[in-house]
Amino acid sequence: MRRPVLRKKVKFAIFSVHRNLLTLQRIVPGCEEADLETLFQRSIEHIIKLKSLVYVLRSLANSYGV
């Protein structure tokens, strides 16, 4: 009785991970056809670039009193 429920949960988890990876591939520039390792490396690089950009924009906003 428990096995069908467990299988559904496993299938949903696999589907969810796959969907999230596809979303990540669309968000990170240049990763449409990348393998997982490259996708994760570029994702980290992209996050670091975005954080740097936020820092620069905050600094500019503070300088101009916005």
Radius of gyration: 19 Å
Determine the number of helices (DSSP H or I, runs of at least 4 residues): 2
Kindly state the number of beta strands. 0
Which stretches are poorly predicted, pLDDT < 50 over at least 5 residues?
Answer: none
The pLDDT mean sits at 92
Give the helices and strands as they follow along the chain: HH
N-to-C CA distance: 62 Å
Structural class: mainly alpha
> What best-fitting shape do the alpha-carbon axes yield?
elongated
Number of domains: 1
- Beta content comes to under 5%
Largest sheet, in brief, is: none
| Helix content bin | over 70%
Characterize the structure shown.
With 66 residues, this protein is an all-alpha fold. The chain has one domain (2-63). The chain is 82% helix and 0% strand. It has helices at residues 2-27, 36-63. The longest helix is centred in the last third of the chain and has 28 residues, at 36-63. The radius of gyration is 19 Å and the shape is elongated.
Layout of SSEs?
Blueprint: H1 2-27, H2 36-63
In brief, what are we looking at here?
The chain is built from two helices and no strands.
Keywords:
66 residues; mainly alpha; 2 helices; 82% helix; elongated
